[in-house]
Specification:
CATH superfamily of the largest domain: Topoisomerase I, domain 2
Largest sheet: 7 strands, mixed
Strand content: 15-25%
Number of domains: 5
Strand order of the largest sheet: 2-3-4-1-7-8-9
Shape: globular
Low-confidence stretches: 613-623, 709-721
Oligomer: single chain
CATH class of the largest domain: Mainly Alpha
Length: 721
C-alpha cells in the first residue's frame, strides 16, 4: 500500500501534523511514517505569470498592447522557493504516493496555494481536505477523523481563483494604463483603490470643515442639573452666540422651574459578541494601539506557534452548538488571574445558550476566535502576544455573561418658556461589565459614550414638581471636524462599505460583504502606505497628496466601495455555487477594458509630483546624482541616480531608460547599486553568489544559481524602453 502525502502551508504546521501522525523519519523536505509523508510549502510556491513572461511584447509598457486580457493566465513557480516546489512536485508524482491531503490553511487563500501547486505539478491523484480550527493535537486528530474529499471545496477554489485572476487583470491593466497616461508610477487595484478613497474622503471632510462657535447653558436646580434645549428639538442644545445664551440666563435666573415630564425606562445592553478577525483588529488598535497588520501577525503566531488561539482569519462571531463543551473545557485552562471571572459566565454550572453566540447558521468556514482548551505557559509569550491573548480570553468570558441592566430616567423641566433636559441612571445589574476587557488597560481619554455611561442617579422627581433655579453656567465651544481614520475606524469603514448608500437594493446586496475580507484587510492598508498613497502618524492614517490626486483622477467605478463590495459578494456566492465563475470573470475583463479606455481617452489632464514620475525630479532629502557613464539605450544622455532608480538625463525628451534598484529582488537577486550597474553595463553578464545578471537587447534578466540559461530565458525584465 502506497503513502498518503500531506501538504501543509508552512514548515512549522507540517511538523505539528507530522508529530500527531507519528511521522518520525526525516526525508528531503519532508517527514515520513505511519503510512504518511508530510511536506510543506513556504506560503505560495506557485503564482500567476507576469504579462512579459506570457509574451515578450509586454516587456515594453505600451498603450498599443493594452488591454491585456488572456483567456487563461499561466502559472509559474516562484523563483525564491523553486527548490521546495521541486521537492513537493516530486513527492506528489512519486509512484509510491497513492493520494494526497490538502492541509494548507483552512480558508480561501490556503485552498488556492494547494490547488495552484497541484495544477502546476500536473498531479492527477485523488486528494482529501483537512479542515481544522486550531493547531492543538486534539484538533488535528479530530480533523483527520472528519476529513472530507477535496471536491467538497471546489467552490472555495473557484472563488479563490477568481479573486486572484480578477486582481491580476484589474491591477495589471489599470496600473499600466494610468502609469502611461501620467508618466508616473501609479498602482491601481480592485481593492486598494476604494480603500484609499475612504481615506481621501475623510481628509477632504476634515479640510473642508468650517468650525462654528456655539454655547450651551446648564441650569443647577439644587439637587440635579439640566442642559437647555430648543423646544421640540431635544437634541439641539447649541446656541449660536454668547448673547443668545446670556439672554436665556437672564430670563430664568432665580425663577421656578416646573417638571413637565419624568419617565423611567428599564434598559439592557447585551454582552459583546465573540471576536472575528476584523473586530479583534479594531479593539486591539483602539485599546492597545496595534496596527491591523500587527494584530494579524500576533494572532497567527498564537495560532501556529503557541497553539493558544483558534484559527484567526475568520469572519464569523458565532459558535456551532458542538463547541459548547469545548468552551467550558477552555475556561478551566485559562490563567489563574481570570478564574474568578468564570462563575458569572456559567450560571448553574454551564454556559447559557443564546442565538447571540451559538448559531450554526452564522458560522462560515470557521467559528469565532477563541483560546484553545490548553494551558498556556504565559512566560513563553511575548508581552504583545500576552496582551492579545488576554483580550480574546476576556471576550470569551464576557460574551456569556448576563446583560448590563439599568433604569434610565429622563426629566424635562421648564422655566419662563425655556426647556431643560436631565438624564440619570441607576444600575440594577452590572452583568458583563464586571469583566474588564484587559487585565491592565492603558489609560485613554474617555469617549462621549463613556461619559454618558457615567450618568448619576437623579433624585426622586415627579411631574409638576417645582425647583428654583440656583445658578446657571454658559460653556463656549466650537464644532469639531470628523476625526482622522485609525486602523480601527478604517477597518470598520471597509467592513461596512456601501451600507450608507441611499439605494436600498444596494444596501441589501452589500449585507455581509464589504471591501476585502478579514484575512486581507490588514495587507490592503499596509499596501496603500507602502506605495505612498497614505501615511501612518501614530495611530492616525492620512491620505497623502499623491493619494488624493490619484482618487481625483480615477473613475468612480474603481474608487467605489459599492463596486468592490458587489465583487466580494459575488466571490462568496461563487463559493456557495450561487454565481457562475465564468460570468464573473467576463465582467472583470469588461471592467479592465473600461479602465484602459478611460485612462487613454477620458482621464483628466494632471501632472504628478516629480518624486513619483519615472526618472524625473528628486525625492525630498535625496539629491539626484549623475554617474560618469553613457545611457545604454540612447547613447546620448548620461545615467542619473535617484533613491529608487537609475534613469537617463534625457528621460521624457528622447529617451525612456529606467532601471529600478529593486527590480531583481523579487526573483531572488541583489539590489542594483552604482558599482553593480557599472559592472553590468561594462561586462553585460555578471555572476555572483545568488546567480547571474544578464543585459541583452536592452533588457535585464536574472538567473538563479543552477538554472540553465535557455530554460530560464523568460525571467522578468525591467528596463523600460
Amino acid at each position: 500500500m502506497g503513502q498518503v502525502l500531506v501538504l501543509a502551508e508552512k514548515p512549522s504546521v507540517g511538523r505539528d501534523i507530522a508529530r500527531v501522525l507519528q511521522c518520525t523519519q526525516r526525508g528531503n523536505g519532508c517527514l515520513i511514517g505511519n503510512g504518511y509523508t508530510v511536506t510543506w510549502a513556504v506560503g505560495h510556491l506557485v503564482t500567476l505569470e507576469e504579462p512579459d513572461e506570457m509574451d515578450p511584447k509586454y516587456k515594453k509598457w505600451s498603450n498599443d498592447t493594452l488591454p491585456i486580457l488572456p483567456k487563461s493566465i499561466p502559472l509559474k513557480v516562484i523563483s525564491s522557493s523553486k527548490d521546495q516546489y521541486k521537492i513537493v512536485k516530486e513527492l506528489m508524482n512519486a509512484p509510491t504516493t497513492d493520494s494526497l491531503i490538502c492541509a494548507t490553511d483552512a480558508g480561501r487563500e490556503g485552498e488556492l496555494i494547494f490547488r495552484y501547486i497541484y495544477e502546476k505539478a500536473g498531479c492527477k491523484k485523488p486528494f482529501n481536505r483537512l479542515w481544522i480550527n486550531s493547531m492543538t493535537d486534539e484538533a488535528i486528530k479530530e480533523g483527520f477523523r472528519e476529513i472530507k474529499p477535496g471536491s467538497a471545496y471546489d467552490g472555495l477554489y473557484r472563488s479563490a481563483k477568481c479573486r486572484s485572476e480578477a486582481d491580476w487583470l484589474v491591477g495589471m491593466n489599470a496600473s499600466r494604463a494610468f502609469t502611461l497616461r501620467y508618466h508616473a508610477l501609479l498602482s491601481v487595484g480592485r481593492v486598494q483603490t476604494p480603500t484609499l478613497a475612504i481615506l481621501v474622503r475623510r481628509r477632504r471632510e476634515i479640510e473642508n470643515f468650517q468650525p462654528e462657535g456655539y454655547c450651551t447653558v446648564t441650569a443647577d436646580f439644587g439637587d440635579f442639573k439640566g442642559i437647555w434645549f430648543k423646544e421640540g428639538q431635544e437634541n439641539d442644545t447649541h446656541l449660536k452666540t454668547r448673547d443668545d445664551a446670556q439672554a436665556i440666563v437672564n430670563r430664568v435666573k432665580g425663577k421656578q422651574a416646573h417638571i413637565q415630564s419624568c419617565e423611567t425606562q428599564h434598559k439592557r445592553e447585551l454582552p459583546p459578541q465573540l471576536y472575528d478577525l476584523t473586530s479583534l483588529q479594531r479593539d486591539a488598535n483602539r485599546m492597545l494601539g496595534y496596527t491591523a497588520d500587527k494584530t494579524l501577525k500576533l494572532a497567527q503566531s498564537l495560532y501556529e506557534t503557541h497553539k493558544a488561539l483558534t484559527y484567526p482569519r475568520t469572519d464569523s462571531r458565532y459558535l456551532p452548538p458542538d463547541m459548547i463543551p469545548k468552551v467550558e473545557q477552555t475556561y478551566a485552562c485559562l490563567p489563574q488571574s481570570m478564574q474568578s471571572l468564570i462563575a458569572g459566565a456559567m450560571p448553574g454550572g454551564h454556559i447559557p445558550v443564546t442565538k447571540r453566540t451559538i448559531d450554526a447558521s452564522k458560522v462560515t468556514d470557521h467559528h469565532a476566535i477563541l483560546p484553545t482548551p490548553k494551558k498556556i505557559d504565559q512566560s513563553k509569550l511575548s508581552p504583545d502576544e500576552r496582551q492579545l491573548y488576554d483580550l480574546v480570553a476576556r471576550r470569551m468570558i464576557a460574551a456569556f455573561y448576563p446583560a448590563y441592566e439599568y433604569d434610565w430616567t429622563r426629566v424635562i423641566s421648564e422655566a419662563e418658556g425655556e426647556t431643560f433636559r436631565s438624564t440619570g441612571r441607576i444600575v440594577t445589574q452590572n452583568g458583563w461589565r464586571d469583566v474588564p476587557p484587559l487585565e491592565n488597560p492603558p489609560r485613554t481619554r474617555k469617549s462621549k459614550k463613556d461619559a454618558e455611561d457615567e450618568e448619576t442617579a437623579l433624585p426622586p422627581l415627579h411631574t409638576d414638581d417645582i425647583r428654583t433655579i440656583q445658578s446657571l453656567s454658559i460653556k463656549e465651544d466650537t464644532t469639531k471636524p470628523p476625526l482622522p481614520h485609525t486602523d480601527a475606524s478604517l477597518l470598520s469603514a471597509m467592513e461596512n462599505a456601501g451600507k450608507e448608500s441611499d439605494d436600498e437594493e444596494i444596501v441589501r446586496q452589500m449585507k455581509g460583504s464589504g471591501i476585502g475580507t478579514p484575512a486581507t484587510r490588514a495587507a490592503i492598508i499596509e499596501r496603500i502606505i507602502k506605495v505612498g498613497y497614505a501615511e501612518r502618524k501614530g495611530k492616525i492614517l492620512l491620505a497623502t497628496d499623491k493619494g488624493v490626486q490619484l482618487i481625483d483622477l480615477m473613475p468612480n467605478e474603481i474608487a467605489s466601495a459599492e463596486t468592490t463590495g458587489r465583487w466580494e459578494l459575488a466571490l462568496d456566492q461563487i463559493t456557495d455555487g450561487k454565481q457562475d465563475a465564468d460570468a464573473f470573470m467576463e465582467s472583470i475583463r469588461k471592467f479592465s477594458s473600461f479602465l484602459v479606455h478611460f485612462a487613454q481617452t477620458t482621464a483628466a489632464e494632471a501632472t504628478f509630483p516629480e518624486e513619483t514620475r519615472w526618472g524625473r525630479g528628486k525625492r525630498k532629502g535625496f539629491s539626484r546624482k549623475k554617474l560618469d557613464c553613457v545611457c545604454p539605450l540612447c547613447g546620448k544622455g548620461t545615467i542619473q541616480e535617484s533613491d529608487r532608480a537609475f534613469s537617463c538625463t534625457e528621460y521624457g525628451k528622447t529617451c525612456h531608460f529606467t532601471l529600478w534598484k529593486d527590480c531583481l529582488t523579487r526573483a531572488g537577486g541583489p539590489e542594483i547599486n552604482e558599482k553593480l550597474l557599472k559592472l553590468i553595463l561594462e561586462k553585460k553578464s555578471v555572476a555572483g553568489s545568488t546567480g547571474t545578471i544578464l543585459l541583452s537587447d536592452g533588457f535585464l534578466s536574472f538567473y538563479r544559481k543552477g538554472e540553465e540559461m535557455p530554460t530560464a530565458h523568460k525571467s522578468l525584465t525591467y528596463m523600460k524602453t
